[in-house]
Amino acid sequence: MLRMGRAQAWPTQRLFDNALIADPHLVVAQGVAGLLSRVVRSTTVVGSGEELIESARNAAPSLVVTEVKMLGISGIDAMVHLRSQGCKTPFLFLTTNAEPAMALMAIRAGARAYLPKTVAIDELLRALENVAGGRSYVAPHLTALMIAEKRSTLPVLTPMQLRILQSISDGVGTKELAALLGVSVRTVESHKYVMMQELKVHTTLQLLRKARAEGLIGA
Questions:
Q1: DSSP 3-state assignment of 90?
Q2: CA-to-CA distance for 37 and 157, rounded, in angstroms?
Q3: 155-202 pLDDT, tens per residue?
Q4: Rounded distance, CA 153 to CA 88, Å?
Q5: Which of 84, 102, 112, 133 is the most exposed place for a label (fewest CB within 10 A)?
Q6: CB 19 within 8 A of CB 40
Q7: For the whole model, what pTM was predicted?
């Protein structure tokens, strides 16, 4: 979990009006909410990706702090779903997953910040200040690794994107797929667009061909 680190003065003014904290371990989410209470006027805690989506729709938070691996829908897939519905709330990922590939995936999908839970509290504060100022922030030790990962030709897709890709390959239509996943048609199309960008293709046929060539789905 977060380390103390060196002493750094917290801002005297609030950085955000309201924050949504999402973590499958509620005691962790409540701990983060306690820390953020120093710079956020109010916080809401949820424990699943579905609750994250519902709460973000209803409460319109000014910040979302979420784990990547959630109960149900992942934090990244929840963000993509909300983005497809016009949500512009900044997402800060505070996670046990310190893999540069996952950090790169989150940033490419629209995250504003990405931090492993092993960082010092002062680094969390720096990330919050950057996000509040409209800037992005990634833990410094991940940045160089992300650059190397970005140079790799291996595409990085989320579990939901892989499921959508395989379903399209199996001949499942967009409307049927949306119903099966419990999401909107727009969300499915949004995932397809992100995958096309990731695999650098322009049509569904090209997407499937490239995915098969990369071994992402079966022939």
A1: coil
A2: 34
A3: 677 888 888 988 998 899 999 998 988 888 888 888 888 888 888 888
A4: 29
A5: 133
A6: yes
A7: 0.71
Tell me if 168 sits within 8 A of 178, measured CB to CB. Answer: no
User: What's the CA gap between 176 and 170, in Å, rounded?
Assistant: 12
| Structure token digits, residue 77 | 């897939």
Residue with tokens 């977060």: 2
Question: Which pLDDT does position 12 carry in this prediction?
Answer: 65
Q: Which residues contact 94 (CB under 8 A, 6 or more apart)?
A: 23, 32, 65, 66, 67, 115, 117, 124
**Tokens standing for residue 13:** 């003014």
Domain architecture of the chain: domains with CATH:
16-150 (3.40.50.2300), 159-213 (1.10.10.10)
Both structure tokens of 218: 């079966």
Give me the amino acid identity at 150.
Answer: K
